[in-house]
Amino acid sequence: MPELPEVETIRRQLAPRLVGRSVLDSWAFPSAKFDQAPTAVGHRITDVGRRGKYLLIGLRPQGADGESIAVGDTGERDEAAELVVHLGMTGRLALDADADHAAATDPHPHLRAWWSLDDGRRLTFHDIRRFGRIAVVAAGRYDDLPTLATLGPEPDDDAFTGEWLRTEINRRRRRVKTALLSQRPVAGVGNIYADEALWRAGVDPRSRRLTRAAAGRLRDAVRDVLREGVDHGGTTLRDYVDAEGAAGTNQHRLDCYGRAGQRCHRCDTTLRGAMLDARSTTWCPTCQS
DNA sequence: GTTGCGTCCTGGACGC
DNA sequence: TGCGTCCAGGACGCAA
After folding, report:
1. Which residue is nearest nucleotide B2, judged by alpha carbon to C1' distance?
2. pTM of the entire predicted model
3. pLDDT of residue A131
4. Residue A284's CB: how many other CB atoms inside 10 A?
């Protein structure tokens, strides 16, 4: 399930191939989750960014001659836009080599949207469980995407400090793991990396308050596990593959997530597993207490 | 404003 | 073999 490292891996692969391309045509699965995809038609892609788990594809309207229209030149119609893609649990973006061939031969049951580009290729979005989402918004206007609108700092942002994390956790009464998954204290953490970061920091996922020392350790752990996830191309447990169809390798490095009943790599205690606020959670009862 | 639960959705695992 | 049930998960809506 794509979290920050998986989305960042895909972003890095797509960016050099998409920037400068024009969107000629599009199709979307008939669902409110995907039906904004064709709104990107008639735009040139200006950049491929990311915030948390959201992929943000910058768009600029094109004139009849194919040239981009500068923002503000001709009024509101020409406002820069963003194609926002959230991969949900099973979403996958890929570039087909030949748009016409792909369109004719790929009636894939999990295809949710595609965009054909002016270089003959086609960007496709597959999503088995339909937990993903596509939106086209005015640049920076995320009113209809509340989680994106209130996203916490990026893990590498200077604003993401131990003191910030401690304040965010302690001013509410949520369990620390549930708070991390809310995307408010820091952007991009999902169930896998939350378990890993809490294990690495020695923080009990059930706790509702952090000391300064624990908050500092957790902040460092969140940064480290996400960076390492990016370095290893993401974590593939079942469905995730990157934009080139390759699985990540970070799953071979997990210390905690999905290892309930096995020995803790740090203290040899048997790891516990339980549902915590409706999320499967694994932790060490000895070194996370 | 905050918390916690239910819902969406489908493939795979498992039990009978 | 076939059927039914449960589980996994991120975002969001809603009741308390």
Report:
1. A172
2. 0.91
3. 87
4. 24
